[in-house]
Amino acid sequence: MNSQPQTRKVAVVGGTRGIGAAVTSTFVRAGHDVLLTGRNVPQVVLEKFRTEAAREGQRVEALALDAAAPDSAERLAGAASSLLGGLDVLCLNAGIFPNKPLAELTYADVREVFAVNVESQMLAVAACLPLLWESAAGRVVLTSSITGPVTGFPGWSHYGASKAAQLGFMRTAALELAPFGITVNAVAPGNVATEGLDGMGEEYLAQMTATIPLGRLARPQEIADAVEFLAGERASFITGQVVTVDGGQTLPESPEAVLPVTGAGG
């Protein structure tokens, strides 16, 4: 595989808040040309990212995009071509995670989650392939979750199903695109301290934190660091894989629950 150019062209779908904002900021601060998308991208948000630019002439552009809209994939590819002049890295972070008991789910509920979390990502990759084929080292990185692929949580059955489907797509895409030197991987965060947890309540957050062996929620930057790694040259021989960043939350049991604690002499 060819070495990556020092400056890369990166698209971050769902790049304005939470994990997505951390991903956008990470690539901007590294000096790459970045196109970020969101349902709406306030000018003040775009200007904030532009102040983080690491070099003269660096391009930091924005596209207002509803990921579930029928034309979103074509608009994304068109914007990457016209605003960045190509595409090397496609980060797919847009997603929704509504909570609803299984007994209350409707057709519309399920369709909405799958449209954003699965279908939009499949179509985005397909639409951007002509650009990624032209890259010296194309990268696709999806933001997944521990919910669905690894574990389950009550009230998130439709969300968990969508994330499991997302990883099925990721693995198949990795096989299809490997002959072209394009890698496809995913990052699966556990619970992350983002705006999405606002309103959950202190008691709920305390219970959530108690399930994490490292004793705290993940920081958005820690997820972004994993995305940056998978998009970089050091991950050039990694494809079809999931990097779980959850502080040990999905480990089956703590070591103390499995083995007795002994002294140095065993």
From TrEMBL:
Domain Ketoreductase: 8-190
Family: Belongs to the short-chain dehydrogenases/reductases (SDR) family.
Molecular function via GO: oxidoreductase activity
Keywords: Oxidoreductase
Organism: Streptomyces aquilus
Protein name: SDR family oxidoreductase
Pfam families associated with the record: adh_short_C2 (PF13561)
